[in-house]
Design goal:
Number of helices: 20
Bound molecules: glutamic acid
CATH architecture of the largest domain: 3-Layer(aba) Sandwich
CATH class of the largest domain: Alpha Beta
Radius of gyration: 30 Å
Number of domains: 3
Distance between the termini: 61 Å
Strand order of the largest sheet: 1-2-3
Helix content: 40-55%
Oligomer: single chain
Mean pLDDT: 96
Largest sheet: 3 strands, parallel
């Protein structure tokens, strides 16, 4: 069983979407299931409505999942398992206060050593524990031997017991810590394969240790994805617009193009332009590069243009708010001028808007406008052009510049000869 486990704490990060896509593809390839788990136990950071946003984004990308779980509904199980570990003496109550722990952290920092919990409370006797009325957390005893797992991208990884530490699994208020909730849920929900960002690598030995302590033996396969870098080569953060899937969609990048780009990123693929369905046929997580991948906006733009051109004319028209499929043909011509719908749409709308004369060519503009309003219909651009030239006695720049403005309301744009077939039946509507 594969899963995607986002936290509803902000706009979905492009890196998270990449993990969702990879999990979905691998689930389809293997015939294993795929489920969604909303990791909403950090109530202070949850944002209302973000779970809905996640569902909508997945739907827009064609990522369908089976069950949808909310982590918060499992809290009673997290608590029960913590109690079981305490009764089996695999976990223990810790009465250390935050101030005491902070002082020890400071001390370690001063001595230039990595802080590890010193197991003070592990040494407490039953009597001391039972008579203590101070609030306590529950810590899982650190493992006795190293924890090793194989990562499909990073290879074999081993973590020493001291680096895993006797870490907190239940807070003083008895809510589960992140790693504990996640490890238990993966166990309860029969997860067999986890693909997620490499920021979770250091969580994995803890999660493995939690499940092993509970006697769970189902093996989980991992792939931790290298981070995505921004154009400066730094980790792509919230400050980078492209880190937000919502932002990319609002710019008019198509879900199919974004998915194509994210599958291509840091990967070896048999071709450059493809659909999610096609990728299911050949995708191999083991081909994902170990090194971080740089997000290249220009590449995404090129891929988006290809996906726009592959749409039906009607689909393209609808994206720009038109019903008429011919407007989709115009849109496709304008993929030479823009890459995202948000860039192309205003250019197409300008064709149907009232026109302004180019500076210095006001007279020529008016002359051509009058002729055009009364001109017959021409099938080909050459006949259309010859007729206008002859009637207006204009040529060169004095002809083409005002004509371009009359047809497109712009100084620059596609070759008029290329545009004409798509607009020829609208000339009377356009010239105003
Ligand atoms: N909730 C975690 C996140 O959004 C993902 C945890 C996981 O995939 O195990 O980064």
């Amino acid at each position: 069983m594969y899963r995607f486990a986002p936290s509803p704490t902000g706009d979905m990060h492009t890196g998270n979407l990449r993990a969702a896509i990879f999990n979905f593809i691998c689930a389809r390839q293997s015939g294993k299931g795929f489920y969604l788990r909303i990791e909403d136990t950090d109530t202070a950071r949850n944002i209302k409505g973000k779970d809905r946003d996640i569902l909508e984004i997945l739907k827009a990308f064609g990522i369908t999942c089976g069950n949808i779980y909310y982590q918060s509904r499992n809290i009673r199980f997290h608590q029960q398992f913590a109690m079981q570990l305490v009764s089996e003496k695999k976990a223990f109550a810790c009465f250390c206060t935050e101030e005491e722990l902070e002082a020890k952290r400071e001390e370690a920092k001063k001595n230039g050593i990595a802080y590890r919990y010193d197991n003070t409370c592990l040494k407490l006797g039953d009597e001391e524990i039972l008579t203590n009325e101070k609030p306590f957390t529950i810590r899982l005893k650190q493992p006795e031997s190293p924890i090793t797992f194989t990562d499909d991208i990073k290879g074999v990884l081993t973590f020493e017991p001291k680096d895993i530490d006797s870490f907190v699994i239940l807070r003083q208020n008895k809510t589960p810590m992140y790693n504990f909730a996640c490890a238990i849920d993966d166990m309860l929900e029969n997860t067999t394969d986890i693909i997620r960002g490499e920021d979770h690598v250091s969580n994995t030995p803890k999660q493995e240790h939690i499940r092993a302590s509970l006697g769970y033996t189902q093996k989980i396969t991992y792939a931790h994805l290298p981070i995505i870098l921004n154009h400066e080569g730094k980790k792509m953060s919230k400050r980078d617009d492209a880190s937000s899937v919502k932002w990319l969609l609002e710019q008019g990048f198509l879900p199919s193009a974004i998915a194509n780009y994210l599958i291509l990123l840091g990967n070896k693929t048999p071709k450059e332009i493809f659909t999610l369905q096609e990728a299911i046929e050949w995708f191999n997580i083991k081909n994902i590069s170990k090194s971080p991948a740089k997000f290249d906006m220009d590449k995404l733009r090129q891929i988006n243009r290809e996906h726009l051109r592959a749409l039906s004319d009607r689909e393209f028209a609808n994206l720009m708010g038109f019903e008429d499929e011919n407007i989709g043909i115009i849109g496709k011509i304008y993929t030479e001028e823009g890459s995202a719908v948000k860039e192309i749409e205003p250019k197409v709308k300008a064709i149907f808007a009232p026109k302004n004369a180019p500076e210095g060519f006001e007279k020529e503009f008016d002359t051509l406008k009058t002729i055009l309003q009364n001109a017959p219909y021409f099938e080909g651009f050459d006949d259309f052009k010859s007729y206008l030239m002859e009637k207006s006695s204009l040529k060169g720049k004095a002809f083409f510049k005002p004509l371009r403005h009359l047809l497109t309301n712009s100084e620059h744009g596609p070759e008029l000869a290329n545009l004409y077939p798509a607009v020829k039946t609208y000339i009377k509507e356009i010239v105003k």
